[in-house]
Amino acid sequence: MPEKPLDPPIRELFRAIYRDQKDGYVGQIMEHRHIELEFDLFTRANSSLTLNGRIYKITNGTLLLVASRDMHRFVHDPDSAYNRYVVMFSEQFVRPVLSCMGMDRFLDELKDGPRVLQLNAALQGHMQSDFSLLATCCTRWEINHDVHLCSILQTTLIHLLMEMSIEQNKTPEAQPISQQKQQVQKIMSFIDTHYFADLTLEKISEASFLSKYYITRIFKRVTGYSILEYIHQKRVSQAQNLLVETDLEIVEIALRCGFNNLSNFYHVFGKAVGMTPMYYRKHYGRHPVLN
Questions:
Q1: How high is the pLDDT of residue 174?
Q2: In this structure, which CATH number among 3.40.50.2000, 3.30.70.3400, 2.60.120.10, 2.60.120.280 belongs to the domain 14-168?
Q3: What integer pLDDT is reported at residue 183 of this predicted model?
Q4: How does residue 106 score in pLDDT terms, banded at 50, 70 and 90?
Q5: Interatomic CA distance for residues 153 and 131, integer angstroms
Q6: CA 213 – CA 206 distance, rounded (Å)
């Protein structure tokens, strides 16, 4: 088992990149969360997003804000081109500037509003220019942490976030539209509140009033992964939190997260995270950024 994280937390205050997959997206991203906020503009996509148990359609012009510790996962159509700007930033990066502007509550208010928006073509083009500026300046800033570049990054990012705030008041949040997606959301909500129990397909079927064969099929079709994979991801995610934020014994954490034995916990955790629970706690436990 490799003793290193597959997707380690980003420790920089700011990062902006442009992802371009002209021939279709390759690879799957497991459900995850991170400390930083994530601010994305999709210029070309045929994807779905699972965000805190809700499923959204991601298309050209989708603007997205993922708050700190939001559980989320993207499933991309491998046959479709995929392009997006990704901005990862710590609140510490913009709060001093916001404070000087008398906008101390701005980020909190932004996170309380709709965070998956669909932009019209004109606004997408306008915001895309600023996202491109962030990606270009970030590359230079990573080489030379010049104070002027930092100022450009801060003011441009705040400008984009303010644009999103304006759109929040005009545009309703994107909603899951199909009946199957609504059914899958109910299944995910049931798992989210019962992950610590002895979950079986039969119990999930009874709770959703749908046959286990039907829920198995639609869950895979809508989310891109199986019900068992989702259960494991939910349990591992909760275990990660307990490993970092508590001093509980590992066997106690395993039981609290729904694993019936320690061996199974180590196997599932190692497969998902790429390291043992003990090493994860040693690497990330009581991390100063988390406190």
A1: 57
A2: 2.60.120.280
A3: 87
A4: very high
A5: 10
A6: 12
